[in-house]
Structures are given as C-alpha cells and as structure tokens.
UniProtKB/TrEMBL annotation:
Alphabetical UniProt keywords: DNA-binding, DNA-directed RNA polymerase, Nucleotidyltransferase, Sigma factor, Transcription, Transcription regulation, Transferase
Species annotation: Runella slithyformis (strain ATCC 29530 / DSM 19594 / LMG 11500 / NCIMB 11436 / LSU 4)
Signal sequence residues: none
RNA polymerase sigma factor 54 core-binding domain sequence ranges: 110-305
Identification of the protein by name: RNA polymerase, sigma 54 subunit, RpoN
Listed InterPro entries: RNA_pol_sigma_54, RNA_pol_sigma_54_core-bd, RNA_pol_sigma_54_DNA-bd, RpoN_core-bd_sf
Stored Gene3D superfamilies: Homeodomain-like, RNA polymerase sigma-54 factor, core-binding domain
One Gene Ontology cellular component annotation held by this UniProt entry: DNA-directed RNA polymerase complex
Any single Pfam family the record assigns to this protein: Sigma54_DBD
Any one of the GO BP annotations: DNA-templated transcription initiation
Ranges where the RNA polymerase sigma factor 54 DNA-binding domain occurs: 317-475
GO molecular function (one): DNA-binding transcription activator activity
Family stated for the protein in its record: Belongs to the sigma-54 factor family.
C-alpha cells in the first residue's frame, strides 16, 4: 500500500478517536433544562462531595502524594481541550451568580389531587347492578381490557380464555358476552365498540329524530363512502337530496369518534409546562440571548467533607473518585453553557429578521451545517444543543428545530424557506371552495404561479406536515 494512503488512514483513525469523557460530554449537551435539573438533583443525592452554593475561591488545599487525598482532583479539562468547538469558551456566569431572586419567584410543586378515573366509574356502574361475585370479576376484567379510548379490541372468546388462565376458573364465552352487552349500554355511549363504525352505531341507537334512521342505514351500509366523502354515491344509493344528506352528515358530525376523550385518563399524570432553555429579548435593533438557568443551582465541591473523610487508602480512593465526578460535572455544566450560548447566538444572527418581528415569512433557509460552520463546531454538536430545546421570545415559546428549514429557489432566483411556501399553501387551502377543493396538482400549479415551483409530491409532503387532509376529505356539501 502506498505511503500517502497509510498516512491518510492513520489521520482518519486519529480524527475519529473519541475518549469516553468526550462521548459523555456530548450526551450531556443533549439534556434540556428540566433534564439537567433532575440530573443535578440525582448527583447531589449520590455524591457527598458535591453541594449547592457559590464556589470557594479563597481557600486553598494541598494535594497528597500517590494513594493520598487529592482535593484538587485531576484536571479533566484536557479530555476536551483539543476540540476546536470549545477553544473560545468564555467564563460561565454560574461562577459569579448569586441568589438574589425575590421569594415571589419561588416555584412550588402543585398538590397531588386524588381523582376517580373513568375505569373506576365504569366499574362502579357494574357494582350497582344485581351481579353475583363471578359476574363482578368478569366485569372488572372486561373494563380493564378496554383501550384508553374505550374500544374493546378483544373478542368474548379471547377474554374468556384470559380470565380462565389468570383466575384459575373456567369461563364460558357466553358469560363474557353478557357482560359486554351490559357494557355497551352504559355511559358514555359507544363503550365496548369494536371500531369506529360500531361506535357511531351505538351512539345513534340512543338518539331520536327523523334523520336517525337514515343516518344509521348510511353508516351501516355506506360507511366507506362516508369516510371518503363520496356524497354523490350516497345520495344515489339512498335516494337522498343534497339538503337531506347535509342534515344527516351534520348529525353524524355531532357524534363522538372516541367514547372516552378529554381529561379522562387511566392515571393521574402531572405534565410540566415547557420550560424554555433560552431567553431571547429584543430591544430595538439589539437582540440578547441568555440561558434560562434559574432552575439550575450553582455547584461547588465540599472540601471540608473531603478532608474529614480522607485518611485510609480506601477512603482516599473513594473520596478522589467522588471528587473527580464532582469536578467533571461542574466543568461539564460550564462547557454546556458556553456551547449552547455560542450556538444560539449564531442562530439568532442567521435569523435576525425573524427574531425582531416574529414573522415566519422572514425565516431564512437554514440547516445545522450553517450554524456549525459559522462557529466552527461539529454538526452533531449543533444537533444536540437544539434537539428538544425551546426558546422564550417576545412572540412566544418556539421549538428550535422549527427554525431549521430547507431552501427552495423561486422563479426569480431568490432562495426562500419551505416554511414560507407552507404558509402560502395553507392560505390557498383556507380560501378554496370546500365543495370543490383543490387537489395537489392544482395547488402545485397555483404555487408555481406565485413564483414557487414545487412538484406535486412536495405539495403532498407539505400538506401532510401541516395536517391538511387530502382534497376528497376536505370536501363538504
């Protein structure tokens, strides 16, 4: 093999060589503010060397010889000092920050409230009936077999087999079928349905009116045509006028496609609001970027504990390991803050017009590589500091990933963001005649007339991304 090729392979091996500390730091960059807060809490519980508070800068400690206590710990900075992406890091503000916030800014955990789930309420309905102990057991099993939406995807025979196997009693299929029939008569209407068609029919059984019978017949015999909005075929097969069908469609539209919806859930789940990782403020032509670090406490090494515990060789080994871990965490937070700030400032610079106005039409085409090249970092690093991250702006909280869009050349040669094309597409769909909605070919031609030459499949992709149904499903009478 030629010498130049050997040199190239050797260079590639050196380039691709990543230490475990570097991999750990890259994973650390991917944490959002809430995840970092939880990670720090876990470290504070597991590591007695680590504690909250500003770093002590005046007190000095001597390092012991090999096998002794090293309160300064080894310098882990060399694990990633050779990275180009970290060469211009500034001093992080967590080293100089003080806790000067008002007591009114404290956040308190909401109280846990005991709630009754819809499954519990359904079981209570069964317990009010004159059922024996065996039937009560079967009713509880059937209720627990329902999906989160209230559908029953199992047959009576399958449920009977499951009960027989788990409870050690032989259950006939007819016994389960009786319980299912009781379930289908309970509230809310539609419980125990096998599919959407069955769910709608169960709800229609409890309604009265001149259109109910025709609606039941239409759902039972023309459900596929109804789903596809093939109105002409339904009117012809059921001898209906356009006004009659319009009234029936309006009636069916009032039905619930899911028996269980809204806030009724299987378990009590407290969902945290989105906590932005960045705060972007705009004052005139000036745009400022800062990290939302109010949930992240300053950390320091408990050197007093380290000196008191040290003594034996085993104790010193333990303390040194915890000391190294504490110092690594503090330095990793510093690297994370610097990298995130540097990346976000580059994004704001590239999308300056958008952040000043909040107008999505001013969003410029931007990919991860554009930011990486601007600040001399790796694309994977930019991906980590933007994935799952949010920014508080004067016009609301935005997901950083939404800022990255591909560019499309207009007929005038100008490159625009595909988000701008999506806005124009949504505008065309909103103004269309709903009785004769535009198909993808027509939308592509209309976009081309406005200077955006895109293919039909691109229109279909944008439409799916914006949750806009196909033309046949947008059609109304």
């Amino acid at each position: 093999m030629a010498a130049p090729m050997l040199n190239l392979i050797q260079t590639q091996k050196q380039t691709l060589k990543i230490s475990p500390a570097q991999i750990q730091l890259l994973n650390f960059l991917q944490l959002n503010t809430l995840e970092l807060e939880q990670h720090i809490k876990n470290e504070l519980e597991d590591n007695p060397i680590l504690e909250e508070g500003p770093e002590d800068t005046n007190e000095e400690f001597d390092a012991f010889e090999e096998g002794g206590l090293n309160t300064k710990a080894e310098d882990r900075t060399q694990d990633y000092m050779d990275w180009d992406e970290f060469r211009d890091d500034d001093t992080p503000d967590y080293r100089t920050r003080i806790n000067n916030f008002s007591d009114d800014d404290n956040e308190y955990t909401p109280m846990m409230v005991e709630v009754t789930t819809w499954r519990d309420e359904l079981k209570e309905q069964f317990h009010l009936l004159a059922l024996d102990e065996r039937q009560q057991l079967l009713s509880d099993f059937v209720v627990d077999s329902l999906t989160d939406s209230g559908y029953l995807n199992y047959s009576a025979g399958a449920i009977a087999d499951d009960v027989s196997f788990t409870s050690g009693i032989f259950v006939e299929e007819e016994e389960v079928q009786e319980i299912i029939q009781l379930l289908r008569k309970m509230d809310p209407p539609g419980l125990g349905a096998h599919d959407l068609q069955d769910c709608l029919l169960l709800q229609l059984e409890r309604l009265q009116g001149p259109e109910v019978g025709i609606a039941t017949k239409l759902i039972r015999n023309n459900f596929e045509d109804f789903a596809a909005r093939n109105y002409e075929k339904m009117m012809k097969s059921n001898n209906l006028t356009a006004d009659q069908l319009k009234a029936i469609v309006a009636l069916i539209g009032t039905l619930n496609p899911q028996p269980v919806i809204g806030s009724q859930t299987d378990s009590l789940v407290i969902k945290d609001n989105i906590v932005p990782d960045y705060i972007v403020t705009v004052e005139g032509d000036l745009i400022d970027v800062e990290l939302n670090n109010r949930r992240i406490p300053p950390l320091k090494v408990n050197k007093t504990y380290a000196k008191e515990v040290g003594g034996t060789r085993a104790a010193n080994t333990y303390v040194n390991s915890k000391l190294n871990a504490a110092n690594w965490l503090i330095e990793a937070i510093q690297q994370r803050e610097n990298t995130m700030l540097k990346s976000m400032r580059a994004i704001v610079k590239l999308q300056e017009d958008y952040f000043k106005t909040g107008n999505v039409r001013l969003l410029k085409p931007m990919v991860l590589r554009d930011v990486a090249e601007r600040i001399s970092m790796d694309v994977s690093t930019i991906s980590r500091v933007t994935s799952g991250k949010y920014a508080q702006t004067p016009f609301g909280v935005i997901h950083l990933k939404d800022l990255f869009t591909e560019g499309v050349l207009t007929q005038s040669g100008e490159e625009v963001s595909n988000r701008q094309i999506q806005l124009v597409l949504a505008e065309l769909v909103s103004k269309e005649d709903k009785q004769h909605p535009f198909n993808d070919f027509q939308l592509a031609e209309m976009l081309a007339d406005r200077g955006y030459p895109v293919a039909r499949r691109t229109v279909a992709k944008y439409r799916e991304q914006m949750d806009i149904p196909a033309a046949s499903l947008r059609r109304i009478l």
